[in-house]
Amino acid sequence: MRAVVTGASGLLGGNLALILREAGHEVVCTRRAGSKVAHLDHAKLTWAEADLADEEALRRAFDGADWVFHNAAAVTVRQKVTPTIFDANVLGAERAVRACQAAGARMIFTSSTVTIGLATGPEPADETSTWNLPERGLGDAYAVTKREGEARALALARAGADVVVVNPGYMFGPYDTRPSSGRVLIELLRGAIPALTPGTNSFVDVRDVARGMILAAERGLSGERYILAGHNLSYTDAFPMFARWLGVKAPRFKLPYALCAPIGWAGDLMERLSDAEPLINSSTVGFGFCPDFRFSSKKAEAALGYSIGPLEPAVMETVAWFRGVGMV
């Protein structure tokens, strides 16, 4: 198959491109002008320059494709939806789907678990869950725009485009140049996480997600969503376990919400006054204390053959890659 991967400079897109290449597929990766892709030079991938703002460039990049894996997005912790974020995550999603449809290709559209909704009982959330993040104070710019972009992609699927949506969990793996989700492991190694919050997340090896996306391309139904999550763990369980694997000191203390909430509010105020993106705001604090960010991948397991592997190799190989490139 001829596969086009958008967002290949990122954690998921880069690993996906490598796995597709190893499986014998013809792979074309898109990048924006100036994107850093030297970490993938060894794979000798084919690159095409295409910005999400340029539908004609996307059409040229997608021409001749069988599959288009759309991973490119604006990742942010901002509360306010800026024009740049909206254009990338909503309008850019529409442009990518239309360009894919024009090429006669199938799109595997990477969304997020933030579009699913929070668990409302002991069972984890699934594809049928009601989206309830805004009412829980967690409707930040990323969640809102990824939800809207996903909705528009599914609307185009109902109108005839071939679109399969996947919703990955919190991914660890090599080639995390930003770094994105692997930043927490760097901070853990540096001893910069002295205390923990009681929230939860669904941790998964990025390569499991990438393989799940290929299964979605092969077996998924157009117009359907498939959660590609992993191990549902509280931060108070996960980080001591990561520390044990890495041979570093585990965080010892639990942070109270009363201490963290004002820090989050201060971040919100800073964003409003300066328009700068804060490191912490009320949404990041809210996610840190949310016990309901838990997800079921049973639909993907049954329909696609998705498999969740052990987490320890993902953590260890992520850190080994960081060390190999001098990031820790």
Topology:
Elements lengths: L1 E5 L4 H12 L3 E6 L14 E4 L5 H8 L4 E4 L12 H21 L2 E5 L30 H18 L4 E6 L1 E3 L10 H7 L5 E2 L3 E6 H14 L5 E4 L2 E4 H12 L6 E2 L2 H18 L7 H8 L8 H7 L7 H13 L4
Parallel strand pairs: 1-2, 1-4, 2-3, 4-5, 5-6, 6-10, 7-9, 8-12
Antiparallel strand pairs: 9-11
The CATH topology assignment is: Rossmann fold
| Number of domain modules | 1
**Proportion of β residues?**
15-25%
By secondary-structure content and strand pairing, the structural class works out as alpha/beta
Major β-sheet strand ordering: 3-2-1-4-5-6-10
Give me the strand/helix succession.
Answer: EHEEHEHEHEEHEEHEEHEHHHH
Average predicted confidence as pLDDT: 97
- Share of helix, binned: 40-55%
Report the total helices.
11
Can you name the CATH architecture?
3-Layer(aba) Sandwich
Radius of gyration from the alpha-carbon trace, in angstroms: 19 Å
State the distance separating the first and last CA atoms.
38 Å
| CATH class identity | Alpha Beta
* Shape descriptor: globular
CATH superfamily caption: NAD(P)-binding Rossmann-like Domain
